[in-house]
Amino acid sequence: MILHTVLIEKLLRTEPEISKIYVLIKAKTREAAMKRLQTEVINTEIFKSLRQIHGAAYEAFMISKLIPVAGNICESNLGIDELSMNMIAEDVDVIVNSAANTNFHERYDVAININTGGPGRVMAFAKKCAKLKLFMQVSTAYVNGQRQGRIMERPFRIGESINGKHAINGNSTSSVPLLDVKEELDLASRSAQEFGDKKFAREMKDLGLERARKYGWQDTYVFTKAMGEMLLSSVRGDVPVVILRPSVIESTFRDPFPGWIEGNRMMDPVVSYYGKGLLSGFPVDPNGVIDVVPVDMVVNATIAAMAKHGTSGKPEISVYQVASSVVNPLVFGDLGDLIHRHFTKSPCLDTQGRPIQVEPFKFYESMDDFSSHLWRETKSHLSSFRPPSPNGKHSRTVESFCRKAVEQAKHLASIYEPYSFYGGRFDNSGTSSLLESMSEEERKTFYFDVGSIDWTNYICNVHIPGLRTHVMKGRKQTVV
Length: 480
Hints:
Blueprint: H1 2-14, E1 21-26, H2 30-42, H3 48-54, H4 58-65, E2 66-71, H5 82-89, E3 94-97, H6 108-126, E4 134-138, E5 149-151, H7 181-194, H8 201-215, H9 220-235, E6 241-246, E7 248-250, H10 268-275, E8 281-283, E9 289-290, E10 292-294, H11 295-309, E11 317-322, E12 330-331, H12 332-345, E13 362-364, H13 367-383, H14 393-420, E14 424-426, H15 429-436, H16 440-445, H17 455-470
Parallel strand pairs: 1-2, 3-4, 4-6, 5-14, 6-11, 7-10, 8-13
Antiparallel strand pairs: 9-12
Helix pairs in contact: 1-11, 6-7, 6-9, 8-9, 12-17, 13-14
């Protein structure tokens, strides 16, 4: 949601002459779609600059530009009625697909339906658009799976997997079977019928992880996104395609204002738990790199790629990785120091209004080490707030809270473990060349030089304050 909201804002603020933007919204009726558009887009804080520009005419301007389309990317014809489908197909010249299920451990059938099948269904619609100039697919840099070292910007080949090699003359060059996207879609569908009941959700989640790891991906999310890219490559025909692969998307760098963020992004639960005194650290390689990029830079790169490839007329497929790990790496050890620096200077408060003191961020080498430290520290932290009650009720409550906190943190750590010790670095040579091809004025307006980010300033003075304002919303620590 964060990416397409910022994209809409930037397009309407910098290119107000745009005729209209059709927004596919998961809804049964146009009225329901309009309600979601109002609540989740028009009325959100990110549009405050546009509100200032248009004043009392803001809402009329937005409604004149944004056309809500009730549908569902998981359904045939995108769930759009035939009349609307034909009208849109006659009008659209650029399609941007950013729909995704980003749950790392989602049910296989759910994830593959939207992340793999979804792009295929959108492409089927794209081929009906007479004026179409470009199809843009927003993916993730982590579709590169468990590849190590410097990872280049290139599209996947059909049958390619991380653990094996792509097909040569129809034959696999490794012991790992060819990755057959159609077969994976069929497998997920058959398994969903077999394990259709909600009580079998665990089996479907395990199936996704099993398939992902068999072929060399960390989890169901990045595996199904990678297959979405492969499916697009196989069915696009002559449709020009740009695949945008951002890394970890975080708060705005400067546009329309610094620090705006929506929801907890990848590193944010750890940051907020640490600031509240509920985590002393995390299992992560202190010498490793977390690849972070501000959302407004991703949006600006999207628009730049749209401008370049939407006018070329070449039926090619291009890949841009909007990432920082090669040109401006943020080392986990440095990130831990910056988080500690911020919360030492500007601590969170408990329910009594007292500052929560944080110790230097700790780096744990294993899950066992992390779990044992976490249990002792969480219990000690919570017990210090109130004296034990005579009947022991408080002690039992504290212990229950501790167990839940420990389990939540362990679950978070298990999900992030493949990324906490990740050895891949995302090359962004193509993205840098895209920036260099722009005029000086264009670079000022659509700025995405990730190499120029001062991480100390961004983390301490932009991102964490934004996280506290827009997600944590200044809430105090809750103590049992």
